[in-house]
Structures are given as C-alpha cells and as structure tokens.
Task: structure prediction
Amino acid sequence: MTTDLTRATAAELADLLNAGSVSSREVTRALLDRTAAVDGAVRSYLHVDEDGALAAADDVDRRRAAGEELHALAGVPIAVKDVMATRGLPTTCGSRILEGWVPPYDATVVRRLREAGMPILGKTNMDEFAMGSSTEHSAFGPSHNPWDLDRIPGGSGGGSSSVVASFQAPLAIGTDTGGSIRQPAAVTGTVGTKPTYGGVSRYGLVALASSLDQAGPCSRTVLDSALLHEVIAGHDPMDSTSVDAPVPAVVEAARRADVSGMRIGIVRELTGEGFQPGVQARFDEAVQHLVDAGAEVVEVSCPSFTYALAAYYLILPSEASSNLAKFDAMRYGLRVTPDGIDAPSAEQVMAATRDAGFGDEVKRRIILGTYALSSGYYDAYYGSAQKVRRLIADDFAAAFETADVLVTPTAPTTAFRLGDKLDDPMAMYLNDIATIPANLAGIPGLSLPSGLADEDGLPAGFQVLAPAMADERLYSVGAALEARLAAAWGGPLLDCAPDLTEVSR
Ligand code: GLN
Result:
C-alpha cells in the first residue's frame, strides 16, 4: 500500500482510517496541499472549501475517537461537480447566470455524502449547465487533462475527472446526461459510472434534461466507484423518478470480479469505423482479457443507434429550454439592468440578464429546443425523437436477450487538444456517439481505462452497459478487466501519468 495519502484509493483510505493509522484531517490536509500545488495548472476546481472540509474531517475524527459506529467511507474526502446544490457553498453550474448564488439546501446526493461523514473538498468545473464534452464551455475557463495539459479532460464533468486523475481527490461526483461521467473518465484514464436512471436521486441536481440526467461516481478504481455508488444510491421521495427498489449489490460484485460464464455482447454499430485505431486496438485486447477470464463473446446489432445522436439533440435541447427558463433574473444569481433604459420592465431585465449570463452553447440549445417544441413542429421533431428513443430501448432489450452486458469503446478518440473542436459543434457532439444510447434508454454504464493508444500515448476508455437495475454487472466486468489489465501493466495506468508538481503555476 502506498504511503502517499493522495495516491491511496478510497478503499485503502477507508482501511487506514478504520484502523486508526491516519486521521481524516491528515488525509484532507494532504489532498488540499496537493490542490495548492497542482490546481493552478489543472484547474479542476471552481471553488475549494478548505475550512468546511477540515471541519468535517475533525468532526468525523472526533466521532471515531468517541467509539461511534461510522459509515465505511467516513473520513474519505470527495469533490462534487458544481451542478449539485450545496448548502452554504457557491453552485454555479459553470455559468455566469448563477454567479453569487449560494443554495439554501443540499442535493440529496450531497446530504448522503455529509451523512456518511465524507468531507467535501470543493466544487468541480464543468461545461456550462453540463452542455459539452471538454469543459471549454465553462464560463470560468477550461480544466486541463493531467496527461497533457494542452488537452481536454472530457466534459461536461472534466473537473471531476481531472480532480481524480491528478490525485487531488480519491473520489468525485459527476452527472451524466449523454456521457458526462463516462467520456471524461475515458480520456483521463479514470473510472466513471452512470447508474440506472432513477437509481440515484436528482433532487438538488440543477436539471439539464430531466429524463436523461443521472448522477454517479468518478474514481480511480472500479471498487471505489462501487463504494461511492452505495453511498449515493437508493430511493428518495424528493425525486418523483427515483426507483423504489433495493440498491444493486455493486460492492459485492466489484469485490468478486467474476465474469465466468457471462455473455459479453459487442455492439456491431459501435466498433471499427469512426474509432481511433489505438482506441479500437485497446478495446479488442480488453475483450480478449475478458474471454481469458471465462466470459463468452457474442455479437449483437442495434440498428437504431444510428439515429441516437439526432434524437438526443432534439430531446435534450427541448427539455433544457424548458428547465433553463427559470433563470429569469428574479430568482437566482445574476441580474443585469439594460443600458439606456430609464425604468426597464421585467422582460427587459430578463432579456439583458439571459443575454449576458448564458454562453453561446447554452443559447444555441435553448433556441434549438424552443424551435423543436413550437406548435406545428412538435410532432415532426420532438415527437419523432421520442419514437426513436423507443426503438433504441427496443434494440437494447433485444441485445440483452443474447448478452448479459454490452461493451464498446467509451469515446471514439483519446483526448483532443483544447480549441480543436470549439468552433465545430457537430464534431463536439460526436464524442458521445457511444455513450448517448444508454441515457436515452435509462440503462447503466461504466467506463474504465483500457490502456494507452499507440498513436499518442493517451488513455482510451472501455464501456460496459447493463440492463436497468442490473448495475452490479458493470462492476463484475469492470473489476475483472481492471485486475487483468493491472497485472499486464504491472500497476495502475495512472502511475504512467505526469506528476505535475513541476509544471504548476
Ligand atoms: N456532451 C454531451 C452534451 O453536450 C453530454 C453532456 C452531459 O452528459 N451532461 O450534451
């Protein structure tokens, strides 16, 4: 086990804390010091809560000393994506329009973290309102990929992926509407899970597209994601779409790491053409590792996936245009008074505020969504997209008759350079070609590193998909593959990433 507390996994930290070998204050302090050393270069955080994190750590240390029964992850610090409402802490969603808003309540996910005794280190950067694949749409500037600071850390949750990949936190919370947990994990060599829709409460998660949004864990190991999954999952009466069923046994599955006899389905439409050769090569090797571990490979076809991106970019903007209507200059954050008008009306203040407060990508999607929902077009656009959504769910259902899980490369390429796709929305949208179908169907997905692509030496991601409420299968497959790959590499992939202390500014 490593002696550097910032390099320890959450499971290792939990063991050290439970054995009394370290205090939560020591762990929290070490991570905050790491942030002070490297976050000037990586820029994972929008807000660091040093005082709050240390106070929570002290509280848990005191309770442990008093012999109180504590949660398994008590004292293990975590970072939270800035899309989650945190009482007393700024929550901007990467947008100017929420600047200065301090929520009066905690999201259910955040409340569960606090109840488990996990110190919250800070709020991580993201594309504005979670729209994007690179964090370049954040109003506060992009985060950087720890493997190469000139490259994107994925998005929208690039703050949460990079905070974990740069050893500033063992765990982070992300949200995934079309891939924002899995694609950032893929390009940073980390692990990320989108649970089954409804498996984790959306209460207090600033909504992008309510029928697609799902919060989930970001970590460096599959077991760590499972441990966090169990903290945040479970029924919540505050979210009407929350599933009222037992949480899948994800930790047990991650610990057993057993794939013997499992049928692994390769989705014909999501391999080969369009995927970077090095990403495809690592994918093929990973599949072979699973076969060596006792799994059986089958090929499945999901023909309607061809239309997934088109359907998503109608459904998401439609729901977003409605969800973002509440940012009206009256209720939250920013209020801009228009120039040159003596007594501006509420509408004029609203227009000036939304003009100044929203970035280009957000405006683009609001316009698209409003158009798609307008009378006369609703059936042609939104209605058709909903029908495609049904076909995609049917494709999954058919595929899961012959396969227990499906696997694909998570993203078509490794991390691209900052600026490369910023002026080409279509190129940016194509990053999520393999992740979006799961959101449209509400099924769970996990991404873990499959290795480094030969072309550029950057991490590639391997995605596992399972039927709704069978999240444990993601962890069986993920943990089995992770163990085989670590044996082949001689250790975790992230050990090959640059240390970063030299480059910090
Ligand atoms: N990149 C996708 C988008 O821009 C997914 C975003 C997300 O999952 N929040 O919509």
In short: The chain has a mean pLDDT of 96.
